[in-house]
Amino acid sequence: MMRIFNLLFLSFLFVSLQSSANYTLPAYTKLTLDNGLSIYLMEQKEVPLIDISVVIKAGAIEDGNSAGLNYFTARNLTLGTQLLSKSELDQTIDFVGANVFSSANLEFVTIGASLASKDSLKILPIVRDIVTSPRFEQNEFDKLKQRHSLNLQQGKERPSSVINNYFNRLIFGEQGYGSIIKGDSQSIDSLTLEQVKQHYNHWYQPNNSAVIVVGDFDSKQMKQQLAKLFSGWKNTKKITSSRVKKTPKATQSKLLLVDKADARQSTFLIGGKGIERSNENRVGISVINTILGARFTSWLNDELRVNAGLTYGARSRFRSYSQDGSFAISTFTKTETTVEAIDLALKTYARLWEKGIDDKTLASAKAYVKGQFPPKFETSTELASLLVNMYGYQFDESYINTFEQQVDSLTIDKTKQLIKQYFPQENLQFVVIGQADAIRKDLQKYGEISEVNINDIGFGINK
Fold it and tell me: Where would I find the H helices in 307-434?
């Protein structure tokens, strides 16, 4: 009996030590093919699944005056290859129960697939063909345009789905990080298949791309398989990309009022400039933001939801890109309590400077953040997504491997420094979507007001 007890105790101790140990990114292999294609391989043997992602460094920041071009190009890739029509492609993927997708953001495109490891020899060549030899069929292109335009129109019925587009334009202007990823109905309607082909031919090249594979495979065999699949992909021209310049901080408070005449509530964002992904203080800032508005027991949620009953939820967030970023407080409330909710959000936000963070609150947030961190990277899909972001946003694993040490090292004095340096306090920017006639007059106290209608074509915001 004593021996069993000792074994149980040792097992418990081992698990406890493991759970308290600092999380580090699992080992992975990185190599580059002769054509410049980067390859990341991370073996994860727990389940017989594989996640593959092909990342292209082409984002909406390169759209210029053709908003949505990069997104629409990515969407067209999965509408068939030179060997398989869309229906044939869908049937082949569905037959083995795989999932293939494409996505695009401001800085890069991802073509991904989740599959059973036993099907890799069948699905990986299809992923290769989707990326390197898309079909670009006029009929499928036209049908996608029609569906996408309808989705854009429907999105205007949900202010939360479009408010970030208005906010980004207000913070960053019409180009760069103010670009509208999915475009608007006018820009999408004007897109041609020839534009998509030209965009594809410029950006989709191996020396501008990476293949990331995570899951149940043998690295040596996978390396050989990928080299065979992608070595024939050629670089056809020199890639010229626009360097995104950092937008200066606002010099005055501004409020964009987006009129939605049938709205029964107001949805709003309040914020300003944030931080880039590589910021050395990103971890400490995230802990402070957790206290302010990134968990259910945050200051903002407590005050606006629990105590005042003005909303079902209030949050704050930092959205970071490779060269810049934004900060925003977000919530929604009844039309008649719009100003009350904004005032309370601002009052709660001001606690960062007026009262600061005490030891008990900081300790609670640090424990919460450390507890939430490892579960974000448990599955092969989550790890693949992490490697995608590392490549696309140009940061390395030091953020992951030193995360818990950085959390532990955060002190009260350090929080004061970070709040002063990185949380925008003056010249805040506001976006409010709601019934303009009912709230316009009362919003004037927050800053210079400009106004657009949510049904207008485009976003109509000039920096």
Answer: 338-354, 359-372, 380-393, 398-401, 403-408, 412-422
